């Protein structure tokens, strides 16, 4: 099957051909005709399946042709936003908007991306000039809506990308505020890696008689990814990682740590070993995150160390190696992590360094993916059979909790409560308050959230999934 056989315009088929893709992936084969038909869509697809092109290509086709298929030619005059794509993180927003530009290069449509952590005035100027397709994170979009600097009254198509992650990060209230500002008559597309009860509830309230697509089994891992476990003592993880990278001559290695502090510490250790590494997480400035990601994509950086949320939006063809330096405390995050390799039909390898503290986490992961992962003990790094497990220091929020809700990009709670803000906030929202993020003043008294950043706080009675805005 070819892209032209799906009903896409010559301009889009030409742009796709120039990227080197010749045949659509399963999600693209199903999603593109469904979106072209004009109805709502509920699509379940794991990361790495080609879902971004699955909605950007038909979206571009619908906006670049009128009802009779005649190409629109007006590309100078200011115009209201016609399509809105909401994503959970800045990196993913930038990646999606880049795809819109690449695939839409031979149309007369233009696009913009808006997210927090950067100045708002250039975004205001761009929006004032006129944008057809807007990619945004929820918090910064609401800032523009509050200031009256974005016109959403002419939205024809709404896309919620990685909706499950947006709910995990506490954006449900923000999403509902955005929906309230949109025209009722529009096409709605919802993409999610999993169909939880909350996703189903969101879909029921948003979608009208949607077509439903689900590729790959729910919570399944990509079969072409070779997965293995290296048992190791907790204090030997860093030497083992350095050994694996050097002895196997690995390049372009994406390494996941559980905490921001752990990511920074690992980068320092790898640098001492002569291995080039950089970290991306919520305490890093947007410019630092962008620089690290760019160098990694261009193969100028050997190792990129990331926390789970910061890694959303990393979309690299033929990324060969993903390493779980720490196992995630949420089993579904394992699927998201290893899905960064083996993309678009390429093969990949996912390696997990597992110490005695993580055996229960490993059991939960294997139960989720319904397979027992092979163990491979590396000579010289044999784990101590008498070692006893110790409590694991989870993300900033404390044991047993999922990704934080309320703050911008998954921060701490806005109200007084239990959260520990650890974000990279830019500026204070108020002069008072104790606690909150590094690099940003707190919002309220006790555990306030930074305005921007990636703090991960526990869900508690003071913080629910529907907690405050995220950027």
UniProtKB/TrEMBL annotation:
Annotated GO biological process: response to temperature stimulus; ribosome assembly
Keywords for the protein's UniProt record, in alphabetical order: ATP-binding, Cytoplasm, Helicase, Hydrolase, Nucleotide-binding, Ribosome biogenesis
Presence of keyword Isomerase: no
Catalytic activity: ATP + H2O = ADP + phosphate + H(+)
GO molecular function: ATP binding; hydrolase activity; nucleic acid binding; RNA helicase activity
Bias-annotated ranges (Gly residues): 397-410, 433-450
Subcellular location: Cytoplasm
Domain Helicase ATP-binding: 32-213
Region Disordered, annotated ranges: 376-471
SUPFAM superfamilies assigned: P-loop containing nucleoside triphosphate hydrolases (SSF52540)
Span of the annotated motif Q motif: 1-29
Gene3D superfamilies, sorted: P-loop containing nucleotide triphosphate hydrolases
Annotated DEAD-box RNA helicase Q domain residues: 1-29
Keyword Cytoplasm: yes
GO annotations of cellular component type: cytosol
Domain Helicase C-terminal stretches: 239-386
Enzyme Commission number(s) from the entry: 3.6.4.13
Family: Belongs to the DEAD box helicase family. RhlE subfamily.
HAMAP family: DEAD_helicase_RhlE
Record function comment: DEAD-box RNA helicase involved in ribosome assembly. Has RNA-dependent ATPase activity and unwinds double-stranded RNA.
PANTHER family: ATP-DEPENDENT RNA HELICASE RHLE, ATP-DEPENDENT RNA HELICASE RHLE-RELATED
The name this protein goes by in its record: ATP-dependent RNA helicase RhlE
């Amino acid at each position: 099957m070819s892209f032209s056989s799906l009903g896409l315009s010559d301009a889009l088929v030409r742009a796709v051909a120039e990227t080197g893709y010749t045949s659509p992936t399963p999600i693209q084969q199903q999603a593109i005709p469904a979106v072209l038909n004009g109805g709502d869509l509920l699509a379940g697809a794991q990361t790495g399946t080609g879902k971004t092109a699955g909605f950007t290509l038909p979206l571009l086709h619908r906006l670049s042709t009128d009802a009779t298929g005649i190409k629109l030619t007006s590309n100078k005059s200011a115009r209201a936003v016609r399509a809105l794509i909401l994503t959970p993180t800045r990196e993913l927003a930038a990646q999606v908007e880049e795809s819109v530009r690449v695939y839409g290069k031979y149309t007369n449509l233009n696009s913009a991306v808006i997210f927090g952590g950067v100045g708002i005035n250039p975004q205001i100027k761009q929006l004032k000039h006129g944008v057809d397709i807007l990619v945004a994170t929820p918090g910064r979009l609401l800032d523009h809506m509050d200031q009256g600097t974005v016109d959403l009254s002419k939205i024809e198509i709404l896309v919620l990308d990685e909706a499950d992650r947006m709910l995990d990060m506490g954006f449900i209230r923000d999403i509902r505020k955005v929906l309230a500002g949109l025209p009722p008559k529009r096409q709605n597309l919802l993409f999610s890696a999993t169909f939880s009860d909350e996703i189903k509830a969101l879909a029921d309230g948003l979608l009208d008689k949607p077509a439903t697509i689900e590729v790959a089994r729910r919570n399944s891992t990509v079969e072409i990814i070779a997965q293995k476990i290296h048992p190791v003592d907790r204090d030997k993880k860093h030497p083992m990682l350095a050994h694996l990278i050097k002895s196997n001559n690995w390049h372009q290695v994406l390494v996941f740590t559980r905490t921001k502090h752990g990511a920074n510490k690992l980068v320092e250790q790898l640098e001492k070993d002569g291995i080039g590494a950089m970290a991306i997480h919520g305490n890093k400035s947007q410019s630092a995150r962008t620089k690290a990601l760019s160098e990694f994509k261009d193969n100028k950086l050997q190792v990129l160390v990331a926390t789970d949320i910061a890694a959303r939006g990393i979309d690299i063809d033929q990324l060969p190696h993903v390493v779980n330096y720490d196992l995630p405390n949420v089993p579904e995050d394992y699927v998201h992590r290893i899905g960064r390799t083996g993309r678009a039909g390429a093969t990949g390898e996912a390696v997990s360094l597992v110490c005695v503290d993580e055996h229960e986490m490993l059991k939960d992961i294997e139960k989720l993916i319904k397979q027992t992962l092979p163990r491979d003990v590396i000579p010289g790094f044999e784990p101590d059979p008498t070692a006893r497990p110790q409590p694991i220091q989870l993300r900033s929020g404390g044991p047993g909790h999922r990704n934080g809700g309320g703050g911008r990009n998954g921060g701490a709670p806005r109200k007084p409560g239990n959260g520990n803000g650890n974000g990279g906030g830019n500026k204070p929202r108020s002069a008072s308050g104790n606690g909150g993020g590094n690099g940003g003043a707190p919002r309220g008294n006790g555990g306030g959230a930074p305005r921007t950043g990636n703090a991960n706080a526990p869900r508690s009675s003071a913080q629910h999934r529907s907690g405050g805005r995220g950027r």
